[in-house]
Each structure stands twice: as C-alpha cells, then as structure tokens.
Amino acid sequence: MTMPSLKAFALVSLGLFAVAPSCALADPGTPNPVYRSFESGKTAHDAGVIRGVIADVDYSGGMLMIKSHGHELVAVAVVPSTAIYQGKQYETFSDLHRGQSVEISAYEVDGRLVAQTIRLK
Question: At 47, which helix (H) or strand (E)?
C-alpha cells in the first residue's frame, strides 16, 4: 500500500470507529450496567433476555419481530454494535431469517428494545 492510500485507510478506519457505535455505552462502575443512548442521551435499562423464533426480519429498518415463547410478537432493533453469534462463530444481520430460534440480550431505550447480543440456537 502506498503512503497516501495508507493515510486514507487510517482516516477512514478512525472515522468508522467514531460513528459506528450508535446505540449505547455501559457505565463500568455500576454492578447493573446503565446505558446511555448516543442518539438521545437518555438512560437505557436492561430489558433481560428474550427467547423465541424470528417471525420477520426488516433488513432495511434493522428490526426483528420475535415470536416469544409466550406467543406474543416482540419488536427488537438491531444496531451496528449488536453482536450476533451462532456457537462461537460471529454472524451478520443478513444471516438472520424467519424461523430461526434466538436468545436476545436486550436493553430498553427511548421506549424501544435494542439487541445487545443475539445468539442463534
């Protein structure tokens, strides 16, 4: 890589790190993490674990509809910082599809559920 393209790569990489986490940060000093939304600055709260089956995926809107084991539909937002796993392997949002069993660790911010981690079962 030439020097100008290396500089461009470094600037782009730094820029991506600056804008990619668009959802929340944990306050490491608290036993129960407190999250803050980058978008609104409002506090987010742990919403626990959602277990169920993917009923629908909105790829353009970054949303999942989960049919929970209680048979209700739950809307969950997927953000760039959401970690998606199948076993120990990382997956991407585009790997998610209807009918897959999932376990989602979520938090609530601004009245909506946001996936922190998604584990495919």
Answer: strand 43-58
Q: Which residues pair with 26 in a beta bridge?
A: 35
- Cβ-defined contacts of 44-47 (< 8 Å, 24+): 44/107, 44/108, 44/109, 44/110, 44/114, 45/107, 45/108, 45/109, 46/107, 46/108, 47/106, 47/107, 47/108, 47/113
Identify the residue with better confidence: 45 or 52: 52
State mean pLDDT over 88-101.
Answer: 95
The answer to whether the beta carbons of residues 54 and 65 sit under 8 Å apart is yes
Three-class secondary structure of residue 52 per DSSP: strand
* Rounded Cα gap, residues 87 and 69, in angstroms: 21
Tell me how crowded residue 94 is: count the other CB atoms within 10 A of its CB: 9
Residue for token digits 């376990």?
103
Backbone angles phi, psi at 52, to 5 degrees: 170, -155
> Whole-structure pTM over 0.85, yes or no?
no
